[in-house]
Amino acid sequence: MSTSTPPPLADVAASDATLRRFLHGLPGVDPVGLEARAAALGTRSVKTTAKAYAIDLAISMIDLTTLEGADTPGKVRSLAAKALRPDPSDRSTPATAAVCVYPDLAATARAALGDSPVKVASVATAFPAGRAVLDVKLADVRSALDAGADEVDMVIDRGAFLAGRYLAVFEEIRAVREACGDRARLKVIFETGELSTYDNIRRASWLGMLAGADFIKTSTGKVGTNATPANTLLMLEAVRDFRAQTGTQVGVKPAGGIRTTKDAIKYLVLVGETAGPDWLDGHWFRFGASSLLGDLLMQRQKLRTGRYSGPDYVTVD
């Protein structure tokens, strides 16, 4: 968990001017080329043995998520039970990576998960809009940490970013990173659907990593455009290049709109072919999803038994 900019880039955020110069000096993104590469990687065929491995890997990378106004402690306890044992009839099914909830339900998730390897992730910083003063955002973070969160998913101030106030966004991420300290890993959400251009997504990716993000995350799942293969590919290129330049590895989390096993496998191919095998692990790549798990479990059982179970086999949140 890094709380400072890696030494090779230590002076980049010395001022608004130096940070702007660095971010606008990043190579421009070729949208046609980016989307074509993402589409081409998505056509890769995966054979049966590899598919079984990919399904289990994808399950182990899921942040099983409920972020609704109607969430209740009972729903969170049910979600935690599902995360711990996704398929009660098959103990070989891996647990998910985390359960992701609002801060006021983090303590419920913590109690339900106990000392299991499944993490408690909590959104914070006035999720999903991020429209609050910094003191309120930091109070939100401390509330999640005090409730037992292992991971904090913060949203950036998109208005400040789009207005070119990069240092303000940097300093806010840095403040949250310092609040998390060694207690929690920090995922920084860009809401890529609101950033308008691929160049902005590349700049936001580097800005988040420079400020100390442990993960960079596409979206909240609360807007029309969430994770896409193209924007995730762009972020994977960013973490790959950031590690090459600084030696620091940062995770990636696409979130929103990933619903099927076919979708998940496409993303795993993107990870392996772009960032490399070091990211093919739940510590460095996550799916933000609420419905993906059900399809993965059905496809897993189809591979194992040759048939799909009835409609009540997989629980529906």
Brief overview:
The chain has 317 residues and is of the alpha/beta class. It has twelve helices and eight strands. Strand 3, helix 6 (134-146) and strand 4 (151-155) form a beta-alpha-beta unit.
Written overview of the protein:
- The chain is α/β, with parallel strands linked by helices and 317 residues long.
- 46% of the residues lie in helices and 10% in strands.
- It has an 8-stranded parallel beta sheet with strand order 7-6-5-4-3-2-1-8.
- The mean pLDDT is 93.
Keywords:
eight-stranded parallel beta sheet, 317 residues, alpha/beta, 12 helices
Number of E-type strands: 8
Strand count, sense and barrel status of the largest sheet are: 8 strands, parallel
Distance between the termini: 32 Å
Tell me what portion of residues adopts beta-strand conformation: 5-15%
Radius of gyration: 19 Å
Oligomeric state of the chains in view:
single chain
The amount of helix comes to 40-55%
Structural class: alpha/beta
Secondary-structure element string: HHHEHEHEHEHHEHEHEHEH
Low-confidence stretches: none
Net shape: globular
Average pLDDT works out at 93
Arrangement of strands in the largest sheet:
7-6-5-4-3-2-1-8
Number of helices: 12
Topology:
Layout: H1 16-24, H2 31-41, H3 48-60, E1 62-65, H4 73-84, E2 98-101, H5 106-113, E3 119-124, H6 134-146, E4 151-155, H7 158-162, H8 166-180, E5 185-189, H9 198-210, E6 215-217, H10 229-246, E7 251-253, H11 261-274, E8 287-289, H12 292-305
Parallel strand pairs: 1-2, 1-8, 2-3, 3-4, 4-5, 5-6, 6-7
Helix pairs in contact: 2-10, 3-11, 3-12, 4-5, 6-8, 9-10, 10-11
